[in-house]
Amino acid sequence: MKNFVITVARGFGSGGRQIAAKLADELHIHSYNNRILTLAAQYSGYDEHYFREADETLNGSLITKQLLELPKMFHTAGQLSKFVSDDRLFEFQRHIIKKLAESESCVIVGKCADYILKDYDNVYSVYVEAPRDYCLQRVQERMQDITLEEANELITKTDKYRADYYKYYTHGNYWTNPINYDITINNSRLGDEKSVQLIIQGMRLKFGDEWYHEYMESLKE
């Protein structure tokens, strides 16, 4: 297997984004979150004729370079507005995700990546969730000026936005459906570090120990 991709879907406040970052560090690969959306938005500003001409040059390495040049978002963000569809933007996002999956090992957070890559055999898909009290605690720790009531509203509205987004772009599937994923994790039971190790163990089961040992050896080169 030339490369592998881990997709991470997550409830807001569950720690999924942090798990994705730690997983990428552990495996020495890139983790992509909102930078995919930012780059897709840039591409969607081009007219169709320009993009069709440019498409042949938009190989995985170029897209990776463009993504890494964009700033990361380190702060916890949520979504208080209602979901509004943008089919054109999603198509550019889908294009970027597929190019990444075909060219490099990486972690992709959200963006319906598990659905977009559902037919790829080099993908391991993860869903991270946790009870509301746990999510509230994490949100308040990371957004120190937020009240408990505000944190509760932010979790509710962000998860509703993600559910509507997923349902629309997957044509009726629902975001928390466990059969969409290779593994579903309750992060309150394990915590970030053990969840990372559980995901890696699951990848070893799916891709084989030979893949894991070969990959780890390649890091030493």
Commentary on this structure:
- There is one protein chain.
- This protein has 221 residues and is an alpha/beta fold.
- It has a single domain (5-203), classed as P-loop containing nucleotide triphosphate hydrolases (Rossmann fold, 3-Layer(aba) Sandwich).
- The protein contains 11 helices and 5 strands.
- Strands 2-3-1-4-5 form a 5-stranded parallel beta sheet, sandwiched between helices.
- α2 packs across α5 (87-103), α7 packs across α8 and α10 crosses α11 (209-218).
- The protein is globular, with a radius of gyration of 17 Å.
- The chain starts with a strand and ends with a helix.
Quick gist of this model?
The protein is globular, with a radius of gyration of 17 Å.
